[in-house]
Amino acid sequence: MQTVALLGPAEIRALAERAGVRPTKTLGQNFVLDAGTVRKIVRQADVEPGDRVVEVGPGLGSLTLGLLEAGADVVAVEIDPVLARLLPETVARHVPGLTASREESVAGEPVVVLRDGDGRDRLTVVTSDALDVRALPGRSPEALVANLPYNVSVPVLLTFLERFDSLERVLVMVQAEVADRLAAPPGSRTYGVPSVKAAWYASARRTATVGRSVFWPVPNVDSALVRMDRRPVPVASVSREDVFAVVDAAFAQRRKMLRSALAPLAGSADAAERALAAAGVDPQARGERVDVDGFARIAGALAAAVEAPGDGTPGRVAP
Fold first, then answer.
1. What homologous superfamily does CATH list for 240-305?
2. Cβ count near 116 (within 10 Å)
3. Which CATH class is domain 9-230?
4. Share of the chain residues as helix, strand and coil, in percent rounded to the nearest 5
5. pLDDT greater than 90 at residue 254
6. Binding-site annotation: residue ranges for S-adenosyl-L-methionine
7. Domain Ribosomal RNA adenine methylase transferase N-terminal, which positions (predicted)?
8. pTM attached to this predicted model
């Protein structure tokens, strides 16, 4: 690993001013000013030299430099074209020996690659909305490490876990309330749709709280770090989409008993009750009491109870 001078408050503000960048709430931009926080994120992500790491929303490059310092090869996905153009210049000034080339990504989006003297791709910058990214250039990433924009943190996280099964671990900084939801166990007050859908892909835990003062501009809420480690998906006789449809229905009115909440999917409350019984779940329970494996069983039981027209074979749960 090489020592890299990480960005400090003065340089971050100078970079933003030079580029004419003003952080916007629309893009959920809050830049990390504190090098200690950056290194904490990298440590908790267990980043090793040679790891291929995808970073969503690199902004001015605070975390990007921390990942490069740890020896990772970074694929940075940035929606803001001004910041995407600025990032390679910033990294080249802080990490000597890198040369830039402009290429095209798999999806046809503009890409800039910084390579070291051995021809290794140390930084790849993709200018794109993360929710539109379906392929990444180069070797598949093993980790997602990011200070995720608050306004899209859960959709981005779930999208990347779905589309990139090479991701073995995730360490993201998100709004503290979102962190609690992602890591919540069944039965807890914060357990809900994000908790169940995240658990489909990985085990999650909140690892640290991050104070507001390390950001510019200072947000109105606290932040937290969430660590996620990939796990085998639950055993299910139906698709992930079918299971997630049941999850959405179960929490649409979270105070409803499952018998009532799932009646529209099953066709009636009685049919929902039979399916729940077949899945080994109390029909009078609420969604907050059911883990992801239980939802997989419920979705399978609902599908088995709905016959496909004309051939008597099990149908699919309506999306």
1. rRNA adenine dimethylase, C-terminal domain (1.10.8.100)
2. 15
3. alpha beta
4. 40, 20, 40
5. no
6. 30, 32, 57, 78, 129, 147
7. 37-232
8. 0.90
